[in-house]
């Protein structure tokens, strides 16, 4: 059933309403992770779709990548599925709008409520992707553990992509800064930098209806030569990194010169579009943290560009 | 008495002349800190005002927040008030113009003079907030200690705000990048990130004549819903941080996309205006360092937005 | 002899072709370093010039600073000159275009070849400074050592400057953001930040034909008052830094506000033009890392501005 508030919020616009249920779970490794339970969407014309099958089954690190666009609203319900623990677990989200009771923090911090799921007691958050919130944002736990500040560094983190209402993102393509239509982006790679490990995920928009593919640690990501692909790179935990992708370069929004190595701290990020193999051709293009101790600890992967 | 050079410097413009006296002192905790002794201003029309009462009395960390605008000039005299020490102490300022004898360094570095206060021997610095120097800048000791490189990490640091001649600063308000009139900004929060602690201060422009309020460590800062408030966040010492404010987002000057978590190293900064509670309403909005070890060490506070 | 491919590549444009030979060597200190063997250039009109004499003789840290402009192509041959070692050594370059066999990595990473020099077996890389590659970039080893990830932190790093086809770079001069003609820049300072040490080099364009001058560690760099000088500051290794230059300020490309202290991680950089002593006059203007432990370890130098 669609909540009345959710319906009202997007009545006047072409916005979508998202009804999402996530679960926080423990993996056999002992790490914690979010998993997708259900994601339904109702468009402004009333059309309903069920996106649940797009997601990987079971918990993943990073957690499910949620994609909305400016104007959309969402209700996100979190279930507590961490066996053998009665500690609360939550979702705090970055970038979008939400009232204080959707902050995902404990009452000791927000003064209102323990905004977290307990065993058999889910918690629901309401988000609005208002104008100006376009970007790549983190969501993560802000409650589990002792002290109750969150277990983001144990695996409870994921990615929220708010696409701009214009559907266009500036990028450095063929040597020029141009606006790229997101409809032309066929693959998106989500890459998190946690201490000395990359954790990856792919959104593949070529497969019918799109598909999220978990890539786990230090993955090889791939594209066909000339495809426009979008990277979302973010840090988590304690370490600082510099993300480098071989033989490609990109721009930060508003910048007038390209970079190929960017400072990444916890929850700071770079999000960019490149044309795979532009001017350099196919190959296993290395990406790695340029902090040499991190790299020597194995913090690297390949961007495989094939013809 | 107003120095002739100071009077001459601003004769042809609408610039203000600032005559400031600070003192470097030791606090009972053993930390060092600057305190305001006197701040007088003469406008281009010859009107004199005494701003001394706007400041907190006694030494504070961060030190007194000095506010000037592009075009202004200042003479800043430092008194040595550190009991039981004959070591020199100084002010090195960022951002503005000054001759080499106002650099605040020791002769071993600048080749000219020991530009520092000694017991019973104050030192005077001359600054010009020339066009192009608008921004939020640090001032700090560059002389005390052994070696004589400065005791900025012992508390001897403060903030210099140079407001642009235009009186306007770009900001992300109601989802759009607009120029905000600084006259509409009622509260400014100065937040320094030192190892695992925030040190705060408020400039309150609502109180008649304005008032600087020391907030000390990991403070709650507050605003009324919808007020435009300005944050100045800077690092000091050795650690790197990522500053995050819940449920609000902002832009860096020139950027075309919002952020809510920014890399902060020693003396690097983010300075931005937000509309308190924009789209999210009232609440105790958490701010914290997103480096999880720093956060778990207590590096956090609240931005309390009330109706 | 000029390779046919190189000639073909630039036939249609005003581009220069660069034929460069470098050698990786060991220094008596045990550090490794690149040295210039030969640098010849053929212009689009067929004029040949030999730039070899512009470079320092012998290995230097950082290695030879290579300067090209958008549109240029280069063949760079690396000789293995590290006595007592049969381990491969390579050049991986940032920013420009190159096919996967010019990546400078080992076959285990790129899947194609060991793109490195072995004793008595040089390796040749082909680079294209395509439109959009203007900027200051690193080149460094990506093969030496165990594991074969590169000895960039042992000294095998250098700088590649790609000047824009327009010949102009935005800068904050006399309080305004203007486009500076690179022909008006007489000195360029290359400053690398490695752990607690600066490694410097000067490109002096005043001397007939230009000259590269190695400056080694924590150097004094110098300019005449009012000269436009260009700084290229980059990190290498593991540490994060904040680069500060006293009494000067600059802009990042696209930014609308000045800075005087910038976060620098491994291979991230700031590249900027200032007018020496603008508004502040002559003096020994200190530059240093603002991470206080780095500064206290001696990570500092002077920018000496004379009349």
TrEMBL record, chains A, B, C:
The keyword Amino-acid biosynthesis does not apply. Keywords: Metal-binding, Oxidoreductase, Plasmid. Residues 60-165, 217-305 form the Plastocyanin-like domain. One of its GO terms (molecular function) is copper ion binding. PROSITE patterns: MULTICOPPER_OXIDASE1, MULTICOPPER_OXIDASE2. The keyword Metal-binding applies. It comes from the Bacteria. It holds the Pfam family Cu-oxidase_2. SUPFAM superfamilies: Cupredoxins (SSF49503). InterPro entries: Cu-oxidase-like_N, Cu-oxidase_C, Cu-oxidase_fam, Cu_oxidase_CS, Cu_oxidase_Cu_BS, Cupredoxin. This is Copper oxidase. It comes from Methylocystis rosea. The lineage of its organism: Bacteria, Pseudomonadati, Pseudomonadota, Alphaproteobacteria, Hyphomicrobiales.
């Amino acid at each position: 059933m669609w909540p009345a508030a959710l319906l009202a919020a997007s009545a006047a616009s072409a916005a979508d309403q998202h009804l999402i249920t996530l679960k926080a779970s423990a993996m056999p490794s002992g790490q914690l992770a979010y998993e997708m339970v259900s994601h339904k969407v109702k468009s402004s014309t009333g059309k309903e779709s069920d996106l649940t099958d797009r997601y990987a089954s079971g918990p993943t690190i990073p957690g499910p990548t949620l994609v909305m666009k400016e104007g959309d609203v969402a209700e996100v319900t979190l279930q507590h599925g961490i066996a053998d623990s009665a500690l609360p677990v939550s979702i705090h989200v970055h970038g979008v709008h939400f009232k204080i009771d959707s902050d995902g923090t404990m009452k000791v911090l927000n003064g209102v409520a323990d905004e977290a799921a307990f065993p058999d007691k889910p918690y629901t958050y309401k988000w609005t992707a208002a104008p100006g919130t376009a970007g790549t944002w983190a969501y993560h736990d802000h409650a589990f553990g002792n002290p109750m500040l969150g277990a983001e560094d144990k695996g409870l983190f994921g990615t929220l992509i708010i696409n701009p209402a214009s559907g266009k993102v500036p990028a450095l393509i063929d040597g020029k800064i141009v606006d790229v239509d997101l409809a032309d982006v066929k693959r998106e790679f989500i890459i998190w930098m946690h201490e000395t490990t990359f954790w990856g995920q792919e959104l593949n928009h070529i497969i019918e209806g799109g598909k999220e593919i978990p890539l786990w640690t230090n993955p090889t990501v791939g594209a066909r030569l000339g495809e426009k692909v979008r990277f979302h790179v973010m840090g988590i935990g304690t370490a600082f990194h510099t993300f480098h992708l071989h033989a490609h370069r990109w721009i930060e929004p508003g910048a007038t010169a390209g970079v190929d190595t960017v400072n990444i701290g916890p929850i700071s990020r770079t999000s960019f579009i490149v044309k795979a193999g532009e001017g350099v051709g196919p190959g296993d293009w290395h990406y790695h943290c340029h902090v040499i101790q991190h790299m020597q600890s194995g913090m690297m992967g390949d961007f495989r560009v094939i013809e």
